[in-house]
Design brief:
Blueprint: H1 2-25, H2 29-57, H3 65-87, H4 93-108, H5 125-159, H6 164-168, H7 172-205, H8 213-234, H9 239-263
């Protein structure tokens, strides 16, 4: 049953992605409405798939690449729906939902069989540590989308090109506010995820920190966002500089989540 819901999700995310991309070219309320309806339906199907897999496995489904990529996609769409409703920025879906679709497509390429948990993962820290991490990653993805739109909007303003696409984009202040809100949510959650992960590591492996590749790159990611938050709160970093750092932070976060597992195997590696 979880696989049925999974492929329904894949179909709905594909259709919504198509509509959000069309929305970049043609701005009509009907396209925006159906894009939102499809992505909401896809999110519900995705949630049902995850819940069913959780019921079948007996643990939160984030212990291999298939499950983790799928769960990351789920949290991104959930974060998008929240910010889209709060700020009424339909255009954000044109930059975020394709990323969620790519993740779930990548997830489908990995084996979906449910296996017994590794002994080190049999801990209550599993759900707490990983959920904190995934929600922080999802908010950083929204910040990335807002940052890309910010740079596009700023380019149009600088070149004095006020065409059809320009009219669809939110104001620079709105985009900067979304970026900041995502940072103030994502950074504390990432901090909690790293601390809880260290506590879990001590219980599982006898050491709080072993400089495993995942731990090292998680710390690098943390420093990037810490610098961005510090800059915004103390020296007033806003606008283009904040947008560029948000994009850099997202790329490093993505490497931490996917690249490290594929190319720098360690204690946190999974297939």
């Amino acid at each position: 049953m979880s696989q049925i819901f999974f492929y329904i999700t894949l179909a709905l995310y594909s259709c919504s992605t198509l509509l959000y991309l069309v929305y970049l070219i043609r701005t009509t309320p009907v396209i925006a409405l159906w894009a939102n309806r499809l992505v909401m339906s896809g999110f519900i199907a995705h949630l049902l798939s995850t819940i069913h897999r959780f019921s079948s496995a007996g643990h939160i489904p984030i212990t291999n690449m298939h499950e983790s990529l799928s769960f990351f996609s789920l949290t991104i769409v959930g974060a998008f729906l929240f910010f889209e409703r709060k700020y009424r920025v339909t255009i954000l879906g044109s930059f975020v939902i394709p990323l969620a679709l790519l993740l779930i497509i990548a997830s489908s390429a990995y084996p979906s069989a449910i296996h017994e948990l590794n002994p080190a993962l049999r801990s209550n820290w599993l759900w707490f540590h990983t959920i904190m991490a995934f929600i922080s990653y999802a908010t950083f993805t929204i910040a990335f989308g807002a940052a890309v739109i910010y740079l596009i909007q700023q380019h149009f303003l600088k070149k004095k090109r006020f065409g059809a696409l320009f009219q669809k984009l939110p104001s620079l202040n709105t985009l900067d506010d979304i970026n900041y809100r995502c940072l103030t949510v994502g950074f504390p959650l990432l901090t909690v995820a790293i601390i809880s992960g260290a506590i879990w590591a001590e219980k599982a492996w006898g050491t709080y920190w072993s400089w495993d590749p995942k731990e090292t790159w998680s710390l690098i990611t943390w420093f990037i966002y810490a610098a961005l938050l510090h800059g915004r709160m103390t020296t007033g970093w806003r606008g283009k500089r904040a947008a560029i750092l948000s994009i850099a932070g997202f790329l490093i976060m993505l490497f931490t989540f996917i690249g490290v597992n594929l190319w720098l195997p360690g204690l946190h590696s999974y297939k």
